[in-house]
Amino acid sequence: MAKTALVLGATGGIGGEIARQLVAAGWRVRGLRRKAGGPDQSGIEWMTGDAMQRADVLRAAEGAEVIVHAVNPPGYQRWSELVLPMLDNTLAAAAVNQARVVLPGTVYNFGPDQWAHILEGAPQNPQTRKGKIRAEMERRLRQAASAGTPVLIVRFGDFFGPQVGNSWFAQGLVKPGKAVTSIANPARPGAGHQWAYVPDAARTVLRLLAQDNLPPFANYHFGGHWDADGTQMATAIQRVVQQQTGQAPAIKRFPWWLVTLASPVVTVFRELREMRYLWQQSVHMDNRQLLAQLGSEPHTPLDEAVRATLKGLKCL
């Protein structure tokens, strides 16, 4: 019989990709969304409900072996109110069903004492509000694992991919639905930045779930694409666009001054400004533990990943 997974956040980037790949791998996959939709050809069994309502999550998780917790408040809004209650609902459902919780993690929960080279077990001393919330999420997950609920955390860099609209790639470097005439690079030259191509990220989660020897609390870092000097992603976009159109778009500096100016009144800008440090200095997660577990990491060549992403965003 097929295994069952509940994916919270299946309408989003990483959650949606994990759900689609689980379906392709033969899993029975349920998704939870607030509004009933029309026919869906993805193979996902959609249920109407809200991740903030414990009864909805419990109903959707019935019989599940895995619960993927990939849900986040849209537009960075009301994080302090919503993030932890949603996780608590997931943990309650996982405990009832003896399911493993999967969290696509981030680098937010680490502080400046670890930024240059971060190992999985490094101390978490975040200085930002979102980072402190992320660290508390992981503390609760570790506590749940010690009480008998298995957990898998995979921490990723900035997501990009053909169906990822809410990302720095799609909202900062280029503009979805428009030809690329210029590229806004938010990175300070010389500051390394970590990127995660979503199809590779989801494939990694599936390969880990297929392992028989995962510990009750398993956590790994995904290497992805390491932009060692903060310029390689922008030049890859430039290169791909030039190959496609014959014209090389200009690379410009991201207007951080505008983000700073508008942040008091625009929520998204305020949240982006808080995470500016990720573009000002190298923040690098080490994936050697993942490599030891899997032997290799799914890795699409950068230009191929960028081309697929630009096509998916209707920029080519």
UniProtKB/TrEMBL annotation:
SUPFAM superfamilies, alphabetized: NAD(P)-binding Rossmann-fold domains
Record-linked Pfam families: Epimerase
UniProt cross-references to InterPro entries, sorted A to Z: Epimerase_deHydtase, Lipid_A_modif_metabolic_enz, NAD(P)-bd_dom_sf
Residue ranges constituting the NAD-dependent epimerase/dehydratase domain according to the UniProt record: 5-213
Highest rank taxon of the organism: Bacteria
Protein name: NAD dependent epimerase/dehydratase family protein
